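Render this sequence as a predicted structure.
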Amino acid sequence: MTYSIQSYSLTKIYNGRTVVDQLCLRVERGAFYGFLGPNGAGKSTTIKMLTGIIAPTSGTARILDFDLKRSSLSIKRRIGVVPEDLCLFENLTAPEYLVFMGRMYGLPRRVALHRTQELLEVMGLDGTNGKLILEFSTGMRKKLSLCAAIIHNPEILFLDEPFEGVDAIASRIIREVLEQARKRGATVFLTSHILEVVERLCSHVSIIHEGKLLSQGTLEDLAKGGRLDEAFLRLVDSGKAKETALSWLEAKN
């Protein structure tokens, strides 16, 4: 079996607190992989380590058969990332930003211009040419960030909450673009709190909680014929949920 992502005891400690704990992931090439967990589980930190944004405290990973520590530049040329905070250059227009990103990835200017135009049209951003990115809505920013992540035709897409804060139309467009990338052979690795989207898109899923990997495998194996949200709660909750009834909202006799 060929893997696009493998991590070996990947660990990150901040100020004495273990945020990611001995994480061992196996992501097959061409998989649509959902990386799930509650808030603060370590999902964003894991993506930052796998993409070379931050260094692990211990452990390592192989991305596309490259060692994460020794070949970070070779890895970055082959991946696309939509980070948690998007990191857009807000004083540029969308075309300026995408052409710049294309050139940074080594695309000839003619190719970068052509792909920029096509991406903006597909994402419904082609009417924003004179508008600075700082004026964009959350949904527009998410779509633009995805454009920048795929302009160089990457082999892996790392997406941190790509559907958060976007409307139904933007969500559909993003899903269609991701499906097209996967059919072309790219691996898609995403985090999302919207389990219905994960259930619709993903072929493989893993669940992390308090920095530890609880489960990973195919969506069918994890759900075991039921719903993904039920499997998620079963693994993460483990009977620790607090009473949800509020005293002042209880029904009166």
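Summary. DSSP finds nine helices and eleven strands in the chain. The longest helix spans residues 168-183.
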